[in-house]
Amino acid sequence: MARPLSRGTCPEAGLDTDEIAGIVPELTGWLRPDPGAGRPHPWCAGAVVLAGRGRTVALHEAVGWAARYRGYDGTADAAVELPRERWLPARPDTVFDLASVTKLFTAVTAVRGVQDGVLDLDAPVAAHDPSLTAAAAHGITLRHLLTHTSGLRPELPLYDEPDAAARAARLAAEEPLTPPGTARVYSDLNLLLLQRVLERVSGHRVDRLIAETVTGPLGMADTRFNPPASLLPRVAATEDQRRPWGKLDRGMVHGAVHDENAHAMDGVAGHAGLFSTAWDLALFCRALLDDLAGTAPAKLLSPPFAARLLGAEPDPDGVRRPLGFEADQSWFMGELAGRGAVGHCGFTGTSLVLDPATDTFLVLLTNSVHPVRTWREGNAPRAQAATRLARAAKAG
Predict the structure, then answer these.
(1) Does residue 344 share a domain with residue 243?
(2) Domain range enclosing 208
(3) Residues 194 and 325 occupy one common structural domain
(4) Domain check: are 344 and 369 in the same one?
(5) Is the full-model pTM beyond 0.90?
(6) At residue 1, does pLDDT exceed 50?
(7) How far apart are CA 65 and CA 63, in angstroms?
(8) Residue among 6, 100, 230, 330 flagged as catalytic
(9) Would you list the DSSP string of 234-296?
(10) Are residues 246 and 279 in the same domain?
(11) Active-site annotation holds for 150
């Protein structure tokens, strides 16, 4: 399968060279602590950044380390380093735990089901899966799940349950805190319920559905749940996961999913669990932009359904509600926000943004929880890089 992207120059992409050239030096600066600026720790250990426009990737570089630490000393608030010869440098093809960026793939799979007439966005969830008793009682729909308006709390400690049956029962019985459709509260539970619906309707696990619907057709060869041990030298480490900062006592997580609930679900969940590379995610962004524009045969969705997914048009109340995606969020999209950009972040330090207005896309993958989640500090580097891309597109 021919790849729809190629590496090229900023002029070839229609991007300002000076703006794009500023991204990596700024990102590199965030790899160092800056006590004078109130930042006692590095923002992340390592990162891969990719930026492009049209079919040209103008920037694809790695900085820092995919794995540098073997642990975290909570008493001293200090990292415990691996022997120097075991440090793994970040590379352009480093594989990262995507965390909540996984939600986008589940969302695309669901909207594909709507396009194919298998699912109904506005039918009660119970029409597809009657076993979801609380959702049935409150009339929660797939649209509620995909727009985070179900009223469900952000998360549940499903990892505390003794087995899969107990986890499923607890999720099915979870009551919304507010009436569905009245408030937006971002929740992992929405995508876990969506996973249940997809698996019930199809008879297949969500990892197979995503592979058949999204990653396989796009040639995303490095994107999968539960990467094999042979891939470990390319995988970025995440966290020394221990209580009290973590929710489980697993030690340094490297090559396995970081999210505790996804871990309890054998690494496969609708809200977390995918691993991928920056290039593969650029293929994903490019396919969605193409499908929205209708400039090529649809790869994932027909133009009307791509528009529905990406919230290309506001709802009657004037609010843009993409399905699964976040819209126009300046806190990580910088100056790309406000023109129709959509994207998502993941807890481990991952993010992507695609902007139909400028036909640009930005992928920033980091291991900002390495060695510990308490060192994560804001999203300023994401917004900074996105602003560079926005200005590059304007100037170019």
Answers:
(1) yes
(2) 104-214
(3) no
(4) yes
(5) yes
(6) no
(7) 7
(8) 100
(9) GBPP--EE-TTTSSS--EE--SS---HHHHHTTT--SSS-EEE-HHHHHHHHHHHHHHHHT-S
(10) yes
(11) no
